[in-house]
Amino acid sequence: MPFNRLLIADDDHGFREAVAAAMAARGFAVTPVPSGSAALAWLAANECDLVLLDLRMPDMTGLEVLDRIRERYPHIEIVLLTGHGTIDTAVAAIRKGAFDFLPKPCSPDQVEVTLQKAMERRALIERAHVLQQALAPPDLAGTFIGRSPQFHDVLRVIDRVAGVGSSVLILGETGVGKELVAKLIHSRGVRSSAPFVVVDCSNLHEELLQSELFGHEKGAYTGAVSLKHGLFEVADKGTVFLDEVGDVPPALQARLLRVLETGVFRRLGGTVELAVDVRVVAATNRDLQDMVAHGHFREDLYYRLNAIRIDVPPLRERPDDIACLAAHFVDRFNRRFNQHRRLSPEAVDVLTRYGWPGNVRQLINVIEQVVVLCDEDTITPERLPPMVRAPAQSGAPRLHGDAPIVPLRDVERQYIEFAIKQFGGHRANAARALGIGERSLYRRLSEFGLD
Fold this sequence. Notes:
The chain is α/β, with parallel strands linked by helices. The protein has four domains: 5-134, Rossmann fold; 141-311, P-loop containing nucleotide triphosphate hydrolases (Rossmann fold, 3-Layer(aba) Sandwich), CATH 3.40.50.300; 316-403, Helicase, Ruva Protein, domain 3 (Orthogonal Bundle); 406-451, Arc Repressor Mutant, subunit A (Orthogonal Bundle). The protein is built from 20 helices and 16 strands. The chain has helices at residues 13-25, 36-45, 62-72, 87-95, 108-135, 149-162, 178-187, 206-214, 231-234, 250-262, 288-293, 299-305, 322-337, 345-353, 359-373, 386-389, 391-394, 408-422, 427-434, 438-447; strands spanning 5-9, 29-33, 50-54, 77-82, 100-103, 168-171, 196-200, 215-216, 228-229, 239-243, 264-266, 273-275, 279-284, 308-311, 342-343, 378-379. Strand 3 (50-54), helix 3 (62-72) and strand 4 form a beta-alpha-beta unit.
């Protein structure tokens, strides 16, 4: 039984021992003490979850003990025991932070039910704390690596916008690190201790995405067997990161706009309006202005999201970052796999000359592969994947050197074709390697006439 360590402080020996025996029989780990001072002395040396505290004791009043416990051990739930004529005092104690009170005499069943409720509240508080810690990322500057002028330009913008509450739109190709930029904005701002919630808009159908964002009431649709809190509720006081916001269905864009403008929404199937205070950071690799022009994305939503815009350049436009990024990822995977790999200068030169159409995510995949598969500690060019060593012969587009400049759309088309070929036509694996959702891959295949 979690959170079951119980301290009973009561100067009535018979009552104290009877309750202690009854609660021990019900699964509690019980320690009985005869006074307030004894309770405080025991708490100073032991862990405790629950205190059953009499209000009338000779050495210290229950209210004095309550104040000390709340000050020193705020996580402990306290239940008051009160005799006749002290109900007003018990109510005052609850205002000071006690969980509940029981009039004496009380049955073991009454005590157990009240303690169980106190344990449930303690468990809920613990779960909420764990959730908040998990959703509030630390400052990730140590993982945002680069030395190029373009990198430092992005970092300066991050520092400028982190302290304000405006919506931010992050633009960039797949794999450049848009989510990391969003996490940095959150972790360096005033909302850093609150949740950072990621919503992948590309991998969910409209009804599921609506349920994820706004939640649903029980019975709102087939399969909605219980109430579900939406991610806007979960992120209250924090940040919602809408990844691939360009994939939000048109019918859902209106609801999203209303939340951005008013901070108010209703759960799916609900009638009560809920208010939240969240900052919205969105990202996409699509041309939203072109989508607006063709009627695929609401113009008012675009301008609402685009209060502040950050363009994250692709890795091929900042080759000065490749060497330090590669070294960083080698170190990461050395620690993960207990290896001692290092890149030779020649291998670094090959990595730097390659065009990286999959950007940083592709670089991570390549480094993980060579750290795992290389037999020697020194990684030479021969150990790098063929597509990196000789991109012109591998089928992947050559984006560096004296190759002619081709439209970005053609580069993306060639690279998608190459990825699908590399995975033997398995589109789910190709999408995973490309760092995009399967829906996004199928949409691109349709756009390129490759479906």
